Amino acid sequence: MPRVVHFEIHADQPERAAAFYTALLGWQFQKWAGPMDYWLVTTGPESEPGINGGMGRRRPGQSGDAVIAYVCTVHVGQLDDTLAQAVRLGGSVVVPKMPVPGVGWLAYCKDTEGNVFGAMQPDPAAG
Length: 127
What we know:
Order of helices and strands: EHEEEEHEEE
Helix content: 10-25%
Structural class: alpha+beta
CATH topology: 2,3-Dihydroxybiphenyl 1,2-Dioxygenase, domain 1
Number of domains: 1
Largest sheet: 8 strands, mixed
CATH class: Alpha Beta
Mean pLDDT: 88
Oligomer: single chain
Number of strands: 8
């Protein structure tokens, strides 16, 4: 069963958002060493329940609307199959499949209620 494994914050000014969440919640932000403008977010110690996430610069979807939300990402076995099934069930793909180098394949979907979520197929060779 796919579980939420990651959340993501989309921000126009990631540095400003990092300062906000650090001051408000004590979260830690570390610039990712990969090829994308992205930060890893640590929300607490591994010994406590919860998940960590990431933050990237806001980008538009296919409709031109920017993602304005925390986006939870689920781990899936076959991203293409998951995207096709989402559409069959009345959802839509709002950001098409893209590689996250060294991590996997990522896409964003909208459910039947207009909520956006991410789907990630791990693949270290993606890129």
